């Protein structure tokens, strides 16, 4: 029985130590944003001539797929680190009484980072959506891209839910941004799914 109390205390302490600060969460999101932005020139380089090179592991698609897999991996790491984090910049009673809209700098930093991620990632996806029309005669491209985009979608959905739970005061805005990104992801997936 005494061991259970000690173990519970250790478990609670390790959970508390695992919590990320708002700035650490914002930095994690910014890392994903940078990875997404770094893929934009590669996506822009897609042409009818180089798309088929995917068959021999060359051209723009292998680095794009690798880059998206890196985004998935980085996102999953951040999601696992968020497990110990509670709501950011939760208002105390005095602060709540003074200002019902108080958000706090950490919450704002995370929200801004998420909003920037959405904008950058949508720009990348819109490039891919635009290029999909060029690739209708190159069926080997569609399935690998659609598959990796589904993995990205899973990470984005989970990350968005976690951010909504962390940023209670920004929940509506985060939900709106996440829904917008999800719509763009769905369109990109459907475009590449239809390349057969």
Summarize the structure.
This protein is mostly helical and 196 residues long. It is built from eight helices and no strands. Helix content is 77%, strand content 0%.
Describe this protein's structure.
It contains 8 helices and no strands. The chain has 196 residues and is mainly alpha-helical. It has one domain. The protein is elongated and about 50 Å long. Mean pLDDT is 86; it is low at 1-17 and 90-102.
Q: Mean pLDDT, rounded to whole units?
A: 86
Uncertain segments = 1-17, 90-102
Shape: elongated
> Main β-sheet: number of strands, strand sense, barrel status?
none
Structural class: mainly alpha
The rounded Rg comes to 20 Å
Count, helices:
8
Overall number of structural domains? 1
Strand fraction band?
Answer: under 5%
- Helical content class: over 70%
H and E string: HHHHHHHH
Tell how many strands the DSSP assignment holds. Answer: 0
Cα-to-Cα separation, first versus last residue: 62 Å
Protein name: UVI-1
Signal peptide: 1-18
Pfam families: C166
Keywords: Signal
Give the helix/strand layout.
Layout lengths: L1 H17 L3 H23 L3 H4 L9 H22 L10 H6 L6 H28 L6 H28 L4 H23 L3
Descriptive keywords:
single chain; mainly alpha; 8 helices; 0% strand; signal
